[in-house]
Design brief:
The protein is built from 10 helices and 18 strands. It is of the alpha+beta class and 384 residues long. It folds into 2 domains: 194 residues, no CATH class; 81 residues, no CATH class. The strands form 3 sheets. An 8-stranded antiparallel sheet has the order 2-1-4-5-6-7-8-9, with helices on one face. The chain has a 6-stranded mixed sheet with strand order 10-15-16-3-17-18, with helices on both faces. Strand 6 and strand 7 form a beta hairpin. The longest helix is centred in the N-terminal third of the chain and has 15 residues. This is AAA family ATPase.
Length: 384
Amino acid sequence: MITTLAVENYRSLSRLIVPLDRLNVVTGANGTGKSSLYRALRLLADAARGGAVAALAREGGLRSTLWAGSENPAQGAGRSGPVGLRLGFAGDEFGYAVDFGHPIPADSLFDLDPEIKVECTWAGPVLRPAAVLSERKGPAVRTRTADGDWHRSAGELRPYDSMLSEFADPQLAPDLLRLREHIRSWRFYDHVRTDARAPARSAQIGTRTPVLGHDGADLPAALRTIHETGDRKRLEEAVDAAFPGSRLTIASQGGRFELELHQPGMLRPLTAAELSDGTLRYLLWTAALLTPRPPALLVLNEPEASLHPELLQPLAELIVSAAQDTQIVVVTHASELATHLERGSERHRLELNSIELVKDEYGQTEVAGREGLLDQPAWHWPKR
């Protein structure tokens, strides 16, 4: 489980170090940095798949994503050290940090691609020299082998490749491989489509689907998989809690699955094409949260979108219940959803970590109620 998330110089997040628990809810007014925190987590996940540099380039490169303020805004000073965007996390078992910087000027059209200057993994919650498991500086990588010795590369790592994707070898870097697979298990759901042409509204070829796809196209197959191999009772309870007296069935014709919602008083079931945006979105969240294959981390961005207020409590119950099996981060604008999550966590005797983001007078994002450095988790960045 992640216990600390650290971000530096990313959009409004000049320096943000926050503790995480089993269930976390991120709130705050518009423009306080909630989306930036969500994107920072996504970038960390992209690093394990070798896609962080491309993701930053799609955002306009470092020029568009770097914190635009001063290192010492109270004194009006500019930047004194190397410019870099730094992301990291730590838990009881592992920690990881990456430092992106501007590319060295060259005759290339790929000037939006930042370079990975430094990467580091370590054992335990805090980076210490004795705890380092692998380290990358420029093109050179050293990794601690299974017998405790150091393996050093010949310096062939390209500036746009992460050591997580290139050096995770079971013999030379077993800990790096475990960390990579841990990060790759993370799941993100962000504004799943429910418009008239959304993939979730049409019949699809059905196969066993323990993990709902990010576009929701395999919703009928995912719900049927829960019905057959997952927690069928919780699925039925989730549908009844949101739509009293209703039940779900999955019709199959020629191998194509189609969702059917049976409601009291209706002479026939409604298909996904006929459901309201809110009803379809709730069923999508149900499939994501009742997955028979829980991830190490599940991040939901504004799950309340399009939902009727009466659906927020059943959604909160689903989230709290899922937090028994996986770590969850919920980024939300809805104070009512946050309230339901708090009440639900109390009933389930689960600690809720509430993170309210605010802006200070210099435009930097910070956590409300934090008075100084002593209120944040211990954190050290690897040096270039």
